[in-house]
User: What shape does this take?
Amino acid sequence: MTSIGILGAGRVGSNLANKLSAAGHHVTLGGRTAEDITDRPAGIAPPIAFTDQRTTARTADIVINATPGHSSLERLTELSAELSGKILVDVSNATRDAADGLPGDLCYPGSSLAEKLQANLPDTQVVKTLNTMLFMVMTAPESLATPPTVYVSGNDENAKSAVTGLLNDLGWQPAWIEDLGDIGTARATEAMILVVPHILRRHGLKPFAVSLSR
Assistant: This one.
């Protein structure tokens, strides 16, 4: 059993927390501030713990970033001491919203949130994954009619292996997991978010993943 901390108690974080807890992991869900954690999120029940993000990062072995991507870099850099020596799984996309509230432009063109996080957190092993799909597919990849792809980027092979184990627990079969290489490859998968708003405008919030077909 792994101790997993999830930063961000929205739909993405709560969805991951429930599935990983059901798989037998000790999961702590972190709200933004101590004041924000007075009310446990709907659908999040014990044994999932609920506390602030600093405590969550400090007490977990693996930390998942499910905070809004446009503010993740500043927020997580402030937790550098708590994240030192940890694996940080980054599932967020850093974008600026278009007029309709959907992703418009990338915050870090020519780079990526994952690369920025790795540069700012040199004592943390950052692994990028699960950012190329709607949140419900993260924990139910088998629900799609076509086998989906989940991409993995990171500098440390042991960290990527540990994250691959978590992906298996979330229902991802080995054949669906594509290791792209080092953290620099995350800029390619983060750029994939630019196709998502166009799909959502045409088809609505229907589950899908940006996948590789062979």
